[in-house]
C-alpha cells in the first residue's frame, strides 16, 4: 500500500534534504518501489568524463530510501545499515541516470531493497546495488 506518491516524495526531499533535493527527482512510484532520476552536473563528474562512483552510490541510496518512504510515510530517521554496489559500466557525463529501486522486504524494523541504475535513453545497466535500512520504532 502506497503512503506517499511522486509529488509527496519530491516535496519531502525538498523539505527534509534541501542539500540533495535538486539532484534527485522521483519519476514514478511502482508496485514494489520507485524510479528516481539524476541529471548529472559538473559536481557529479570525475576526470575522464564519467559520473563518479559516490554519485552512483548516492542515487542508489536515495532511491531505496524513497521506496521505503513511499510505503511507510515520511520517516526521516530511517537509516542505511548495509550497502553493496557493483559498478558495471562507465556512465557518460551527458547521460541522465535512472535508478529503478524495488523493495524485497519491508518489515517493522528492517527493509531490504535492490537498485538497478540504467541510462535514461536505454542500454545495459551501469550499476547494481543492494541496501538494508533500519526503520526507527514508531513513537506513540
Put simply, the count of helices is 2
CATH class: Alpha Beta
Q: What's the count of strands?
A: 8
Q: Give the helix/strand class.
A: alpha+beta
Shape: globular
Global Rg: 14 Å
CATH-defined architecture? Roll
The H-level CATH homologous superfamily, spelled out, is: Hotdog Thioesterase
What share of the residues does DSSP label as strand, in percent?
35-45%
Helix content: 10-25%
Whole-number total of structural domains: 1
Mind describing the biggest β-sheet? 6 strands, antiparallel
Poorly predicted runs are none
The CATH topology turns out to be Thiol Ester Dehydrase, Chain A
Mean pLDDT: 93
H/E topology pattern: HEEEEHEEEE
Summed up, what is this model?
It is built from two helices and eight strands; from the N terminus they run αββββαββββ. With 140 residues, the chain is an alpha+beta fold.
Descriptors for this entry?
22% helix, alpha+beta, 140 residues, Thiol Ester Dehydrase, Chain A, 8 strands, six-stranded antiparallel sheet
What does this molecule look like?
The chain has one domain (6-134): Roll (Thiol Ester Dehydrase, Chain A), CATH 3.10.129. Helix content is 22%, strand content 38%. The chain is built from 2 helices and 8 strands. It has helices at residues 6-16, 53-72; strands at residues 24-29, 33-38, 45-46, 50-51, 79-87, 97-106, 110-119, 127-134. The strands form 2 sheets. Strands 1-2-6-7-8-5 form a 6-stranded antiparallel β-sheet. Strands 3-4 form a two-stranded antiparallel sheet. Strand 3 (45-46) and strand 4 (50-51) form a beta hairpin. The model has no long low-confidence stretch (mean pLDDT 93). Keywords: Hydrolase. Pfam families: 4HBT. Residues 48-123 form the Thioesterase domain.
Amino acid at each position: 500500500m502506497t503512503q506517499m506518491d511522486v509529488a509527496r516524495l519530491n516535496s519531502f526531499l525538498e523539505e527534509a534534504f534541501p542539500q540533495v533535493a535538486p539532484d534527485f527527482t522521483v519519476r514514478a512510484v511502482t508496485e514494489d518501489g520507485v524510479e528516481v532520476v539524476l541529471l548529472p552536473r559538473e559536481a557529479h563528474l570525475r576526470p575522464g568524463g564519467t559520473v563518479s562512483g559516490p554519485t552512483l552510490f548516492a542515487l542508489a541510496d536515495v532511491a531505496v530510501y524513497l521506496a521505503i518512504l513511499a510505503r511507510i510515510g515520511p520517516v526521516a530517521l530511517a537509516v542505511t545499515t548495509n550497502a553493496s554496489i557493483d559498478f558495471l559500466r562507465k556512465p557518460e557525463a551527458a547521460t541522465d541516470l535512472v535508478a529503478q529501486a524495488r523493495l524485497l522486504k519491508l518489515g517493522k524494523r528492517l527493509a531490504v531493497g535492490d537498485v538497478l541504475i540504467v541510462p535514461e535513453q536505454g542500454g545495459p545497466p551501469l550499476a547494481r546495488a543492494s541496501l538494508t535500512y533500519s526503520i526507527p520504532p514508531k513513537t506513540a
